[in-house]
Design brief:
The protein has helices at residues 2-6, 28-35, 39-42, 62-73, 84-93, 99-109, 125-132, 136-139, 159-171, 181-191, 196-206, 239-245, 265-276, 287-297, 302-312, 328-335, 339-342, 362-374, 384-394, 399-409, 440-454, 474-486, 496-506, 512-525, 531-545. It is mainly α. It folds into four domains: 2-109, Cytochrome c-like domain (Cytochrome Bc1 Complex, Chain D, domain 2), CATH 1.10.760; 125-312, Cytochrome Bc1 Complex, Chain D, domain 2, CATH 1.10.760.10; 328-409, Orthogonal Bundle (Cytochrome Bc1 Complex, Chain D, domain 2); 440-545, Cytochrome c-like domain (Cytochrome Bc1 Complex, Chain D, domain 2, Orthogonal Bundle). The termini are far apart.
């Protein structure tokens, strides 16, 4: 019985390549002795046995087997209550006391050449081939795997095992541990398979793969695969990104990966930090964000993160062709609200923390607007700028309106700026609020955000439900801004316009010296700035300081 349990040591290790040079250099004889307890389940030649729930392990790369053994030993795998065989595996893996034990058994497994037997899962191979196009960038066109992307070979695995692992990833039995970064990458891929039949289809197609690389020389495009790495990537840290976003940052709609080329470095850095810190990519419906987050989490060091960002700013991949048929005239009207932050031609405005949107693919614009509207994005308490964006997206009443805006944005002509040599380091990893020293000039700069709704002269706009603020008493304006910022106002689920206003107020620090110039600007627009009001504001500032 003990021997059968110990044989689960390699239970979930995926593999079927026979490249011996990929294996560790341990003691073959000691490894052979240790493998004797594995034979009952995995077979003499590592071919695997279905009734023992033991997959084929012959030929798998040592780095992957070793990683899985360590994951089991550390409880990263095999701790889910529904993962029965995984829990058995965890106990057995813990009997490997030293790194030498692991190296020896890996060395022996590398000499095995057993072949797995398929159970004949009934799936539509053509449908599976279509669905597998998303898997190609990591696992390879023929399931050969990719060490650089930490993706194991899956060709040659028994079909019943592939099916089971896809179900485990989809159900959250596997790939949910916070330290299982690569499992977290795999889980949303499995979740994209909508039904059990879809899983069977992919499994049936994978069972036809031979594991021989179809890779072409660098720079040669292939019409048979969805991978977008068409030329060598000079920055190693960007290599994993290139598999989805392209070697020149051009993006790939099939993989849901937007164009990165031309996007300002400060915005890319902020989003990478948001993903890394869990501000973005944690919503259960954010499939693509969940894919992106573990990628960002590999950039543990800030220096590495900034290095990737610097490299991305050098990319010049061309924008994609429009895909959405929308009413650009209607989109132009709806976009009027967006102009104050994103610019008339989508050029963005760093002072307002608004990214450039010109050059982004229309399908990505539409997806993000829907995500903001549904609360998939822009609801995290630390995502201040996302909270600003969400009510804007909520003002678009239906998908048609969203498509119209996306279609209009697609008409913008992108202006590429010169690549900066230095990406400034932020003061902290959290999103910071806008703060400017008190002066009339700075007040006017702060008011730029308010113009799109309240008007250049503070007259208000009924169509946008924005009241007149010109001439309003400073004490009242201050009190309301403070109420919005603290959450006393603008947090009720039915207060649509209050929720629009709250994130705007949150970008202004509630201190007299910062609010004073803003009040002055509002009052001056109405030509009602008096000595009395100035006196009141001065008293308010003194009270704030005390």
């Amino acid at each position: 019985m003990k021997q059968q349990f110990i044989s689960f040591m390699i239970l979930f290790v995926i593999g079927s390549v026979s490249s011996s040079n990929l294996f560790a250099t341990g003691d073959l004889q000691r490894g052979k002795e240790k493998y004797k307890v594995c034979v009952a389940c995995h077979g003499d030649n590592g071919e695997g046995i279905k009734h023992a729930n033991a997959p084929r392990i012959s030929g798998q790369q040592s780095w992957y087997i070793k990683r899985q053994l360590i994951n089991f030993m550390q409880g990263i795998r095999g701790n889910h209550p529904e993962d029965i065989t995984g829990m058995q595996m965890r106990t057995m893996a813990m009997t490997l006391y030293t790194d030498k034990d692991i190296e020896d058994i890996l060395s022996y497994i590398g000499t095995l050449d057993g072949r797995a037997k398929h159970s004949g899962i009934n799936g539509d191979i053509e449908s599976g081939k279509s669905a597998y196009s998303v898997c190609i960038t990591c696992h390879g066109a023929n399931g050969e795997g990719n060490t650089a992307l930490n993706s194991p070979k899956i060709a040659g695995l028994p079909d019943w095992y592939v099916e089971r692992q896809l179900h485990n990833f989809k159900k959250g039995i596997r790939g949910v541990h916070p330290k299982d970064i690569y499992g977290q990458q795999m889980r949303p891929m499995a979740m994209a398979l909508a039904s059990n039949q879809a899983i069977r289809d992919v499994t049936a197609y994978v069972s036809t793969l031979k594991g021989v690389s179809k890779a072409k020389p660098a720079g040669v495009k292939s019409s048979n695969v969805a991978a977008v790495v068409t030329s060598p990537v000079s920055e190693p840290l960007y290599a994993p990104c290139a598999s989805c976003h392209g070697s020149d940052g051009e993006g790939n709609q099939k993989l849901g990966a937007p164009r990165l080329a031309g996007q300002p470095g400060w915005y890319i850095e902020r989003q990478l930090r948001n993903w890394r810190d869990g501000i973005r990519g944690t919503h259960s419906e954010d499939i693509y964000g969940m894919q992106m987050r573990p990628m960002a989490m590999t950039l543990v060091k800030d220096a590495d993160l900034r290095r990737v960002v610097k490299f991305i700013t050098t990319l010049r991949g061309a924008p994609s062709e429009p895909t959405i048929q929308g009413d650009t005239d209607a989109g132009k009207i709806a976009y009027a609200t967006c102009t104050a932050c994103h610019g008339a031609q989508g050029e963005g405005n760093r002072a307002l923390n608004s990214p450039k949107i010109a050059g982004l693919p229309d399908w990505y614009i539409a997806r993000q607007l829907k995500s903001f509207k549904k609360g998939i994005r822009g609801t995290h308490e630390k995502d201040i700028y996302g909270q600003q964006m969400r009510p804007m997206a909520q003002s678009l009443p239906h998908d048609e309106a969203i498509n119209n805006v996306a279609a209009y944005v697609a008409t913008f002509t992108e202006k590429l700026v010169a690549v900066t040599e230095k990406t400034p380091e932020p003061a902290s990893t959290e999103t910071t609020a806008v703060s400017l020293p008190g002066s009339a000039g700075n007040g006017k700069a702060l008011y730029a955000v308010c113009v799109s709704c309240h008007g250049t002269n503070g007259a208000g706009n009924k169509a946008l439900n924005a009241p007149r603020i010109a001439g309003q008493q400073a004490w009242y304006v201050k009190r309301q801004l403070a109420a919005f910022k603290s959450g006393m106002r603008g947090t009720h689920s039915e207060d649509i316009y209050g929720r629009t206003m709250r994130p705007m107020a949150m970008t202004i620090l509630c201190r007299g010296q910062f609010l004073k110039p803003l009040f002055k600007e509002m009052l001056m627009q109405g030509k009602l700035l008096t000595r009395f009001v100035c006196h009141v504001m001065d008293q308010m500032e003194k009270a704030t300081k005390t």
